[in-house]
Amino acid sequence: MKTIIFILLLISALNATDMRGLIFNGNCTTCHFETKTVSAPSMKIVKENYLRAFPIKKDFVENMSKWVVKPKKETSIMLDSIDKHGLMPELGFEFSTLQEISSYIYDTDFTIKKNLSPKKSLSTQ
Ligand code: HEC
């Protein structure tokens, strides 16, 4: 019960975009860095491949969510990445959550540098 109240509070405290970003950042960026390929292809590369195959948002979201819910070699559009990194594990997310995450990925430009440098906010007199 407490958990449900907490989640409801969390949802009302954040707007939809922040919420989607939060779920993405907490769960996908452990393996997929935004622009750097390390243990998995970067989100920029994954997005580029999906955009090429599914340019329309609805198709992009449907197909990415379907794949992430049950990663399979047969339905992969990035076979070279499977050869390089091994198949992505199943993460156990609800399909609707994956639709939120995929729609966030579609809407986000991962190449834009977020300038979070603390130096920016310090006075330089
Ligand atoms: C434990 C590490 C790990 C996590 C966490 C992870 N991925 Fe992956 N993912 C991989 C690896 C490795 C690949 C490349 C191999 C492959 O395609 O299976 C991959 C590939 C993909 C692909 C390409 C599919 C294709 O056609 O082959 C998509 C889309 C994707 N990930 C989405 C996500 C999303 C969305 C999340 C967060 C909900 C996520 N991943 C979390 C490791 C991870």
Describe this structure in words.
It is a single chain. This protein has 125 residues and is mainly α. It has a single domain, classed as Cytochrome Bc1 Complex, Chain D, domain 2, CATH 1.10.760. Helix content is 54%, strand content 0%. The protein has helices spanning 2-13, 16-27, 43-53, 57-69, 79-85, 95-107. The longest helix has 13 residues, at 57-69. The mean pLDDT is 87.
Overall pLDDT metric: 87
Tell me the count of domains: 1
Give the CATH superfamily.
Cytochrome c-like domain
CATH class: Mainly Alpha
- What string, H for helix and E for strand, traces the elements in order? HHHHHH
CATH architecture: Orthogonal Bundle
Count of individual helical segments: 6
What is the approximate shape?
A: globular
| Helical proportion, percent range | 40-55%
Alpha-carbon Rg, integer: 17 Å
* Sheet/helix structural class: mainly alpha
Q: Strand portion, in percent?
A: under 5%
Weakly predicted, low-confidence segments: none
Ligand inventory:
heme C
Task: Please give the alpha-carbon distance between the first and last residues.
Answer: 52 Å
Largest sheet: none
CATH fold name: Cytochrome Bc1 Complex, Chain D, domain 2
**Could you tell me the number of beta strands?**
0
